[in-house]
Amino acid sequence: MSLLLRQRNLPIEDEAGREVPVRVESRGGATHAVSAPLEHTGLYRAFAGGVLRASFAVNPDPREGDLAPMPEQTLVAAFPAGRVRVLRTGDDLAVRVRQARFGRELWPEFLTLALLLLVAESVIGRWGMPAGGWKTG
Fold first, then answer.
1. Strand partners, 24
2. For a tag on the chain, would you pick the N or C end, based on fewer CB atoms within 10 A?
3. d(Cα 5, Cα 71) in Å, to the nearest integer?
4. What ranges make up the beta strands (E) of the chain?
């Protein structure tokens, strides 16, 4: 990028296509592109001679983010009523997420129902048989 910065015409654009004023400086034996403080986060592009030469991301200052957890009532109030499910530490999160995404698994109930129907079929089938069982003849 040092070749890039040696050129005096080095426009930088933000994601909206607005040009950012840049000046080229040499200090400490290196060439630097210096701009006014960038107001918006996002992807910026540097051009040299009308050709895209580099792109770079501008991230927010970590001191601007508050990583403290929000109170539960504040968090719930930010969403439509009835659409929030708060998961607490210690809950089986994998099961809860799968149930929220795909619904509850019903195979144990269907297996129980199938076994009950099998028993009922056996009982009803023997009901009409004579008391001595099958006679071979």
1. 33
2. C
3. 48
4. 12-13, 19-20, 22-27, 30-35, 42-48, 51-58
133: left (phi over 0), alpha (psi -120 to 50) or beta: left
Amino acid at 133: G
Instruction: Answer yes or no: are the C-beta atoms of 54 and 46 closer than 8 Å.
Output: yes
- What's the pLDDT tens digit per position in 77-121? 888 887 787 777 776 777 777 777 887 788 899 999 999 999 999
Question: What end-to-end distance do the CA atoms of the chain give, in Å?
Answer: 100
**Residue pointed to by tokens 């970590």:** 62
> What tokens were used for 111?
């297996």
